[in-house]
Design brief:
Elements lengths: L26 E3 L14 E6 L11 H4 L5 E4 L7 E4 L7 E5 L2 E2 L18 E8 L13 E7 L6 E7 L5 E8 L3 E10 L14 E14 L2 E16 L9 E19 L3 E18 L3 E20 L5 E22 L4 E25 L2 E16 L4 E17 L4 E12 L3 H5 L1 E4 L2 E4 L7 E13 L3 E22 L2 E22 L4 E14 L12 E9 L3 E10 L15 E11 L4 E8 L21 E9 L1
Parallel strand pairs: 5-8, 23-26
Antiparallel strand pairs: 1-2, 2-7, 3-4, 5-6, 7-8, 9-10, 9-32, 10-11, 11-12, 12-13, 13-14, 14-15, 15-16, 16-17, 17-18, 18-19, 19-20, 20-21, 21-24, 22-23, 24-25, 25-26, 26-27, 27-28, 28-29, 29-30, 30-31, 31-32
Membrane topology: Multi-pass membrane protein
GO biological process, one term: siderophore transmembrane transport
Organism: Pseudoalteromonas denitrificans DSM 6059
C-alpha cells in the first residue's frame, strides 16, 4: 500500500448549488428485487447515478470503475467487461430493470448493447448475501435502471479521439417513458498514436408504460438495440488478427404486476443475435453466428414468519434456442468447413426465502435458496442435471447515531455455463474447447463493513474473504488453444476504503482505495483480480457552473494470473466543466486522460492500450 499524494487535496470540481451534497457513492439497504423499494437489509450496495459519471462513457463499464472493488477486465473497446471483487465472467449477475442478462460470452457481460444514455443509475450489490439471487450471483449483482424522464429532453455529445458522436432524445409523461439514442465512433488512438480497434455504430430505443389501479401497479417495457461493425480492441490488431462483430441485435421485454408491498410477479424475455468475424492475417477467417433466448419469471410475496419480516418466492430462468455455428474461410475466401458448435437449452428454478428481525439496535437477516438446473446440448446429445442449497446470514449493529457495523456470511455456487461445457470453436482469442466434466463452483464468504457518518463526512471501511472450491479456470493448452478446468481450492480477500468530506457549502471530496489478493492452493495468483488503486474526486459548486475533477492512481500489478501480464502503474486525470446557459440549456466540456498517458485498462495478455487524451463537448436541452 502506498500513501496517496497529498497535493490532490487541492483539486476541485463543480455541481449545481441546489444539488450540493456529499458525493453520492451511497451504501443503502438492498432487497431481493432491486426495483421494489422495500427497506429490508441484506447487504451493501453502491450506487452511481448518470450525472456523476466522469469517463469516456462508452458503456456501463466506464461507470462501474468509479466504485471501490471494481475494475476493467478482458480486452478493450465497446465490449470491455468488468471484475467485481476479483470475480468476473459468469460469476456476476447483471440485470437491466430486473431482467437477467446472459450472453454466453466467455469474457463475461459488458451490457455494451445498451447506450449509457438510456440508464439513470447502476446499483452494485457486494457481499455473500448476493447469492440469494442464484447461480450467477456468486460474485455479486449489478442492477441497471433505465431512464424515467418527466419531459422532453435532447442531447448531443461529440468527442475528439475516435470522433465519437452521440444523439439522444427522451420523453416522459405520467404513464409513458421513452428514449432513443444513436451513436457512432471511428477507431481511436492511444497516447503513442497506435490505432485501436474501437469503432462501432449503434441505435437503441426504449418504451415503458406504467400505471396503477386499485393499489395494483403494473409495468410494461420494451427495449431494442442494434449495433454494427463493433471493433474488438486487441494488441494483435491490425498486424496479426482483426476481430469485428458485424452486427449485434438485442431485445428486452417484460411485464410486471405488484400489489403494494405484499407481492410481485414478472415475466420477461431477452432475445439476442450477433455475429463475429476473426481474420487471421495471411491465414484464415472464422465467422461465428450466435443467437439465444432467455425467458423467465419471478414471483415473491411478503411474510411475517417467526416474528420477523421477509419474502419468499420462486424464480425460473430458461435458455432456449442457444445456437452457435461456425464457418471457416481460407485466405482466398474459399470455404474450409461449416458446422454447428452448440444447440442448447437450460432450465434453472430457484426457491428462496429470507427473514429479518429487529432486536433493539441490531438488525438480523437469514436467507436460504435452493436451485435445480437442467442443461442440454442437442448437437452433442449431452444432458446434465444439478442442484444446490445455499444460505446467508447478516447482522447490522447501529452502535451510535454516527457509527454502524455490518457483517455477513454466506455460501454460494455457480453452475458451469453452456459455453464452458459445450463450446468447441474459434473465438477472438483463439480456439476454445469446452469441458463437459466441469463441476459446479462453490464458495464460502464473509465480509465486515464499518460505517461512520457525521454532518460533514462519511467513512466506509470494508474487508472480505471468499473461499472457493472447484473454481473454474480458463487455461492455456498451447499458444492458440484454451480450455476450462476446476481448481480444487482458491481464496480471495481484500479491503476497500471510501471517505467523503465536505469542506464548505461549495467544495466536497471523496477518496477511495481498493486492495486485493487471490491465490489457489499452490499459492499461484488467480486471474481477473482487481489491481490496487486510489481514486480522488472533488466537486466545487458555483452559481451557474460546476467543475468535476477525478484523479486515479493504479499501483503496479506484478502478481498476475494465467493469461495475464504485468500492469505498470498509471496516473490518470479527468476533468469536466458544466455551465447552465439558461433554464433549459446546459453545456459540458470534458477531457479524459488529460495527461495523455499510455496505459492498459486490464492485465489481460491480449488487451490493447486505452485511448489517449480525449476532449468532448455536450449540449443538453430540456423542454
Amino acid at each position: 500500500m502506498i500513501l496517496f499524494p497529498a497535493y490532490i487535496f487541492l483539486a476541485s470540481s463543480i455541481i449545481e448549488p441546489q444539488d450540493l451534497k456529499l458525493i453520492e457513492r451511497i451504501q443503502v439497504n438492498a432487497n431481493r428485487n432491486l426495483l421494489h423499494s422495500q427497506t429490508l437489509s441484506s447487504g451493501r450496495t453502491d450506487l452511481v447515478f448518470s450525472d456523476e459519471k466522469l469517463s469516456l462513457n462508452r458503456s456501463i463499464s466506464d461507470w462501474l470503475v468509479q466504485i471501490p472493488g471494481l475494475s476493467l477486465n478482458g480486452q478493450g473497446g465497446l465490449m470491455q467487461s468488468y471484475s467485481l471483487r476479483g470475480l468476473s465472467r459468469s460469476r456476476i449477475r447483471t440485470e437491466v430493470d430486473g431482467i437477467p442478462i446472459i450472453t454466453d460470452r466467455r469474457a463475461g457481460n459488458s451490457i455494451s448493447f445498451i447506450p449509457p444514455e438510456l440508464f439513470s443509475s447502476v446499483s452494485v450489490q457486494k457481499g455473500p448475501s448476493s447469492t440469494i439471487f442464484g447461480s450467477e450471483a456468486m460474485g455479486g449483482v449489478i442492477a441497471l435502471s433505465t431512464i424515467t424522464p418527466e419531459s422532453l429532453n435532447l442531447s448531443i455529445n461529440q468527442q475528439t479521439n475516435g470522433d465519437q458522436t452521440s444523439l439522444a432524445m427522451s420523453y416522459g409523461s405520467e404513464k409513458i417513458k421513452t428514449g432513443l439514442v444513436y451513436r457512432n465512433s471511428e477507431n481511436s488512438l492511444a497516447a503513442n498514436n497506435k490505432e485501436l480497434n474501437t469503432q462501432f455504430k449503434q441505435t437503441a430505443g426504449l418504451i415503458k408504460y406504467q400505471d396503477s389501479l386499485n393499489k395494483y401497479d403494473f409495468i410494461l417495457s420494451f427495449l431494442a438495440s442494434n449495433t454494427q461493425d463493433i471493433g474488438k480492441s486487441s494488441e494483435l490488431f491490425p498486424d496479426k488478427r482483426i476481430t469485428v462483430y458485424p452486427e449485434e441485435f438485442h431485445s428486452l421485454s417484460q411485464f410486471q404486476l405488484s400489489y403494494q408491498k405484499d407481492w410481485l410477479i414478472k415475466f420477461y424475455h431477452h432475445y439476442q443475435n450477433w455475429d463475429s468475424e476473426v481474420k487471421r492475417i495471411n491465414s484464415r477467417t472464422n465467422l461465428t453466428a450466435y443467437q439465444a433466448n432467455t425467458l423467465g419469471s419471478l414471483f415473491y410475496q411478503s411474510h411475517q414468519f417467526l416474528s420477523g419480516e421477509g419474502r419468499m418466492g420462486v424464480e425460473w430462468v430458461a435458455r432456449r434456442g442457444v445456437n452457435i455455428s461456425e464457418q471457416e474461410l481460407d485466405q482466398n475466401s474459399h470455404l474450409n468447413f461449416s458446422h454447428t458448435l452448440l444447440d442448447g437449452k437450460q432450465d434453472n428454478i430457484g426457491f428462496f426465502i429470507d427473514d429479518h428481525w429487529q432486536v433493539d439496535q441490531v438488525n438480523l437477516m437469514a436467507a436460504i435458496r435452493y436451485d435445480t438446473i437442467s442443461q442440454k446440448n442437442t448437437y452433442q446429445k449431452s444432458t446434465r442435471h444439478g442442484d444446490k442449497l445455499n444460505t446467508s446470514f447478516a447482522a447490522t449493529w447501529q452502535i451510535s447515531d454516527t457509527l454502524k457495523l455490518h457483517s455477513e456470511y454466506g455460501t454460494g455456487f455457480r453452475f458451469p455455463t453452456l459455453s464452458e461445457l459445450y463450446f468447441n470453436g474459434e473465438t477472438p482469442r483463439g480456439s476454445t474447447l469446452g469441458n463437459t466434466h466441469l463441476a459446479p463452483e462453490t464458495s464460502k464468504g464473509a465480509s465486515l463493513d464499518l460505517y461512520y457518518q457525521n454532518d460533514i463526512s462519511k467513512l466506509t471501511l470494508s474487508g472480505y474473504v471468499q473461499n472457493l472450491d472447484n473454481y473454474i479456470e480458463r487455461y492455456r493448452i498451447n499458444s492458440d488453444l484454451r480450455s476450462y478446468r476446476n481448481i480444487e481450492q482458491a481464496k480471495i480477500h481484500g479491503i476497500e476504503l471510501s471517505y467523503e468530506f465536505q469542506l464548505n457549502d461549495y467544495l466536497s471530496h471523496q477518496l477511495s482505495y481498493q486492495w486485493q489478493q487471490g491465490e489457489n492452493k499452490n499459492n499461484e495468483t488467480l486471474s481477473d483480480l482487481n489491481p490496487s488503486q486510489w481514486h480522488f474526486r472533488s466537486t466545487l459548486a458555483l452559481d451557474n457552473a460546476s467543475f468535476h475533477n477525478h484523479f486515479s492512481y493504479r499501483e503496479t500489478y506484478s502478481d498476475f494470473g494465467d493469461g495475464e501480464e504485468q500492469l505498470n502503474s498509471a496516473f490518470i486525470w479527468n476533468l469536466k466543466w458544466q455551465y447552465q446557459l439558461d433554464s433549459h440549456l446546459d453545456l459540458s466540456i470534458y477531457t479524459n486522460n488529460l495527461l495523455d498517458k499510455l496505459y492498459y485498462g486490464s492485465a489481460d495478455e491480449d488487451a490493447d492500450f486505452q485511448p489517449g487524451r480525449t476532449i468532448g463537448i455536450e449540449l443538453k436541452y430540456q423542454f
